[in-house]
Amino acid sequence: MKRIITFGTYDLLHVGHIRLLKRAAALGDHLTVGISSDELNISKKGRGPVYTTAERLEIISALDCVDEVFVEHSLEAKGDYIKEHQADVLVMGDDWAGKFDMFNTLCDVVYLPRTEGISTTYLISSISDVGKKVAKAG
Ligand code: C2G
Question: What is the CATH number of the domain that holds 55?
Answer without folding.
Answer: 3.40.50.620
